[in-house]
Amino acid sequence: MPIHTTVDGTEIYYKDWGSGRPVVLSHGWPLNSDSWEAQQMFLASHGYRVLAHDRRGHGRSTQTWDGNEMDTYADDLAGLIEALDLREVTLIGFSTGGGEVARFIGRHGTARVAQIVLVSAVPPFMLRTEDNPGGVPVEIFDGIRDASVADRSQTYRDLADGPFFGNNRQGQNPSQGMRDAFWRQGLQAGARNAYECIAAFSATDFRPDLDAFDVPTLIIHGDDDQVVPFEVGGKASAARIRDAALTVYPGAPHGLTDTHKNELNKDLLAFLDTYAPA
Known about the structure:
The protein is α/β, with parallel strands linked by helices. Helices cover 41% and strands 17% of the residues.
């Protein structure tokens, strides 16, 4: 089982499929690298080396007591990329993983990075504050925290059966298996890790990180995202990142890596293929 050991001894599990220019996938909360399997399999079958890791505290990685915040997540990602000596990387982050990618750029720069993709991603800043009045009220995130303590399993079930895949919208019909996979992956995360990650994805200000983006960037977001609203996430990030391209999926929910996987795979491959090494 491929493992990268970080400087503090945390074991980070990762999958390494295919060969070619590297693509690194960062997953959402409370999921793990399994959530990327459709994209990883597709891109690896089209000439790319595709890696997906389990964030610390999630999936098969160590359930650390500390380090459940974006700086450490980003440093773990940097350590994996450096240990494998990956270069000309395309970083793709979904939801919380988009925050991890943004903080990676803010802390480690783009020396090893060729392209960036943010999918349904939490940047630039989810939380409503005085200088971010369009954000999401803290009461929403407090509610997720309270529910996670009261009944974590049911909380994940409710998210999967409701807003995550748009199952509460007329015309959307995510399969039971798709929803069960979310629940299964969520329960593989450590209880403390998943709890603290709620603050990491909601209360971290990524605006300075986005200002450091200096490579081609693609933003993909559904305009019916009930978890990271389009105006808070994709639209705001596209307005902040210099020369970013924005692709909007009409009617798409948050979990479009599954519900719109064929469309997403096609768009990711087209973007990857635009890169021409110097």
